[in-house]
Design a protein that fits this description.
Blueprint: H1 2-14, H2 19-63, H3 71-84, E1 91-101, E2 106-115, E3 142-152, E4 163-171, E5 198-204
Helix pairs in contact: 2-3
């Protein structure tokens, strides 16, 4: 009786029928998770890159303006950012013109406009909150500051959390010393050619 049991056990141990199916059942979840993770991280990096390019595009367009801007222009920049960035995500932009005053040793705001739900307009009272992130400028020099924020929702739950993609891009006016906005009185200033053309700082919260 014991010998028969050993024979059946030996046969079972040597039988390889169904081994491929068992291996597939064990490895399939790992393979599927790997493919989902690759797609999710690639999509996140792609969206981050698109957000940065959108911010640069808006900054470059505003820097080339020589005529007075208005609310319709800001609306068009926001609409363009939504076309450039994923349409199914929440997008916000803020466009500001910041001036440095040597005598007061501080930054002032010419104007600030925002679109979306995540950002509020800068004021002279609040612009000092980001003074460490603004460039060093000559007296009465200005930069155009473009900030974008976009919600990132991972395509799959593979360990990447939901986050806000923030971009902080500044450029100088290219063809005029000032970028005027309709209904806003702006203090005139100089336009030095020694300032760097454009720089950027990014955050992903």
């Amino acid at each position: 009786m014991l010998n028969i049991f050993h024979q059946h056990l030996r046969r079972f141990r040597q039988n390889s029928d169904g081994a491929l199916t068992v291996e597939f059942v064990i490895l399939a979840p790992l393979l599927l998770w790997t493919f989902a993770a690759i797609y999710t991280f690639f999509d996140a990096f792609r969206q981050d890159t698109i957000n940065l390019k959108a911010a640069y595009t808006i900054s470059d367009l505003v820097s080339r303006e020589t005529t007075e801007l208005n609310e319709t222009y800001i609306d068009s920049m926001y609409a363009m950012s939504q076309l450039l960035i994923r349409s199914d995500s929440n997008t916000s932009i803020r466009i500001s013109v910041v001036r440095w005053d040597e005598d007061d040793d501080r930054y002032y705001l010419d104007w600030s406009k925002e679109r979306g739900d995540a950002l509020v307009e800068w004021t002279n009272a609040t612009i000092s909150e980001i003074e460490d992130r603004l460039p060093v400028m000559p007296d009465q020099e200005r930069v155009i500051l473009v900030e974008t924020r976009n919600d990132l929702e991972p395509a799959f739950k593979v360990g990447l959390p939901s986050m806000d993609l923030d971009n902080f891009v500044f450029s100088r006016p290219r063809f005029a010393p000032l970028v005027h906005f309709e209904g806003v009185d702006i203090v005139s200033g100089s336009h030095e050619d020694s300032l760097e053309g454009q720089d950027t700082e990014k955050d992903a919260d």
